[in-house]
C-alpha cells in the first residue's frame, strides 16, 4: 500500500472543507495541493481510486466515522463523484449537524421528501414556501431572505444543487445523493433497476434514458410537462406527494384518466423496493391540468 503523504493529508483537508468532488475536480485538487506542498503530482481520473484508497485506509484506522465513497450520479450530471460521508450519526442529524436550527432541519427533511417524490426531481421557490407553510414547526420562521440564505447554505455544503441557468430551482446535491441513500429510500424515491441506487427523477436522468426504475411512481405522459408556478401557489398541501394522495376525481372523465395513468409496480431486477414514509409502496395518481 502506498504511503500516506503530505499530499494525502492536504487532500483530506480539502474533503473536510468541500465535502464532494467529481473526478476531474479531484484530479485538479490533488495537483493543486501537491504544488502547494512542494510535491508536484500529475494524476489522471483512472488513478484516483488508488490515491483515495490511501486516504480511506487512514480514515478507517482513525475510526472517526468518516469515509470517502465513490458513486456515479446519473440523476445529477452523469459524472463520478467522491464524497466524504458520515457513517455514524442518523441521516438527518449528520446532514444538519449543529449548524442548522431545529426548524431548518425540519424544512430540510421536507425538501428531501419533496425531491424524492417529485416527477421532475427538483424544487422551485414557490414549492419551498408551500412546504414551510404546511408545517407548524416551520410556518412563519422563513421570511424570504432567511429562506434564500438557508438554500444557499445547503447548496454551498452540497446537499442541494442550484440549477445552472434557472434561478430559484434546486435539486439534490452530491452529498444528498450519496450520503442520504437510506433517507431517499424511506421517503419514497425511485430505485434504479440497474444500480439499485435510489434516484431523483430529474430531466437529466430521464433524458439520458435512465428510466428502468423498480418503483416508478410518476405519470409517464407528464414527465416533460411544463410546471405552472401559479398552480403551486394555490395548492395549500405541504408537498405534491401528499396533495396527490388527497385529490379525488371531479368527474367521470377525470376518474377514467386516473385509472389509465395508474403506475405499474416493478418487481424485477432483484433490488429492494423503496419504502414510503408510511410503508406504502404503491404508485401515485395525478390529474392532468391545462398549461
From TrEMBL:
Molecular functions per Gene Ontology: ubiquitin protein ligase activity; zinc ion binding
The name this protein goes by in its record: Non-structural maintenance of chromosomes element 1 homolog
Main location as per UniProt: nucleus
Reactions the enzyme catalyzes: S-ubiquitinyl-[E2 ubiquitin-conjugating enzyme]-L-cysteine + [acceptor protein]-L-lysine = [E2 ubiquitin-conjugating enzyme]-L-cysteine + N(6)-ubiquitinyl-[acceptor protein]-L-lysine
Top-level taxon of origin: Eukaryota
Keyword Coiled coil in annotation: no
Keyword list, A-Z: DNA damage, DNA recombination, DNA repair, Metal-binding, Nucleus, Transferase, Ubl conjugation pathway, Zinc, Zinc-finger
Enzyme Commission numbers on file: 2.3.2.27
Coiled-coil region(s): none
A Gene Ontology cellular-component term: Smc5-Smc6 complex
GO biological process: double-strand break repair via homologous recombination
Assembly behavior: Component of the Smc5-Smc6 complex.
Pfam families: SMC_Nse1
Family: Belongs to the NSE1 family.
InterPro entries named among the record's database cross-references: Nse1, WH-like_DNA-bd_sf
Subcellular location: Nucleus
Region (Disordered) residue spans: 215-291
Biased composition (Acidic residues): 219-236, 251-266
Nuclease as UniProt keyword: no
Amino acid at each position: 500500500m502506498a504511503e500516506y503523504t503530505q499530499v494525502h493529508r492536504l487532500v483530506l483537508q480539502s474533503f473536510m472543507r468541500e465535502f464532494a468532488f467529481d473526478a476531474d475536480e479531484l484530479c485538479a485538487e490533488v495537483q493543486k495541493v501537491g504544488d502547494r506542498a512542494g510535491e508536484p503530482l500529475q494524476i489522471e481520473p483512472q488513478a484516483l481510486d488508488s490515491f483515495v484508497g490511501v486516504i480511506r485506509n487512514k480514515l478507517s484506522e482513525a475510526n472517526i466515522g468518516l469515509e470517502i465513497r465513490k458513486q456515479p450520479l446519473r440523476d445529477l450530471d452523469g459524472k463520478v463523484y467522491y464524497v466524504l460521508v458520515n457513517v455514524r450519526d442518523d441521516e438527518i442529524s449528520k446532514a444538519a449537524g449543529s449548524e442548522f436550527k431545529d426548524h431548518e432541519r425540519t424544512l430540510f427533511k421536507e425538501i428531501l421528501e419533496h425531491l424524492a417524490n417529485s416527477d421532475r426531481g427538483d424544487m422551485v421557490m414557490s414549492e419551498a414556501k408551500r412546504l414551510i407553510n404546511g408545517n407548524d414547526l416551520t410556518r412563519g420562521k422563513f421570511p424570504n431572505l432567511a429562506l434564500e440564505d438557508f438554500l444557499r447554505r445547503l447548496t454551498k455544503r452540497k446537499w442541494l444543487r442550484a440549477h445552472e441557468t434557472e434561478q430559484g430551482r434546486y435539486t439534490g446535491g452530491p452529498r444528498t445523493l450519496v450520503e442520504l441513500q437510506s433517507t431517499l429510500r424511506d421517503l419514497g424515491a425511485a430505485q434504479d433497476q440497474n444500480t439499485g441506487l435510489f434516484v431523483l427523477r430529474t430531466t437529466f436522468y430521464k433524458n439520458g434514458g435512465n428510466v428502468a426504475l423498480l418503483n416508478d411512481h410518476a405519470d409517464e405522459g407528464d414527465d416533460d410537462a411544463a410546471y405552472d408556478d401559479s398552480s403551486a401557489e394555490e395548492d395549500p398541501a405541504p408537498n405534491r406527494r401528499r396533495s396527490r394522495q388527497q385529490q379525488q376525481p371531479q368527474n367521470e372523465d377525470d376518474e377514467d384518466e386516473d385509472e389509465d395513468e395508474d403506475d405499474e409496480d416493478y418487481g424485477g431486477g432483484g433490488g429492494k423496493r423503496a419504502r414510503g414514509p408510511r410503508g406504502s409502496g404503491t404508485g401515485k395518481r395525478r390529474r392532468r391540468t391545462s398549461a
